[in-house]
Design goal:
The protein is 40% helix and 0% strand. It starts with a helix and ends in an 8-residue tail after the last helix. The longest helix has 16 residues, at 2-17. It has helices spanning 2-17, 56-69, 73-76. It is an all-alpha fold and 84 residues long.
């Protein structure tokens, strides 16, 4: 009984240790992150062309364009005539 119980206790302990959640509010430097509006965004070379950081109208335009051109399957699919 003891030979079976010891591995089970160890496995249960390891499983419970893996269930912990690390705090996500502090970055690598130990300083708390401050939330900003989504339109503030990143200010680097990887932003979409035509979008200006901090401009809400530009942000909304980019979201609308991405939804219509990149994520709308009806506009992406070629027009196929209906079969008769």
């Amino acid at each position: 009984m003891s030979k079976l119980l010891t591995p089970l206790v160890v496995a249960a302990t390891l499983a419970m240790a893996a269930c912990g959640e690390k705090p996500q509010a502090i970055d690598h430097s130990g300083v708390a992150k401050r939330d900003v509006k989504a339109s503030q965004g990143a200010q680097n070379a990887f932003v979409a062309p035509g979008w200006t950081a901090g401009d809400d109208t530009s942000w909304q335009t980019q979201l609308r364009t991405r939804a219509q051109q990149g994520q709308n399957e009806y506009s992406r699919a070629a027009a196929v005539p209906a079969a008769k």
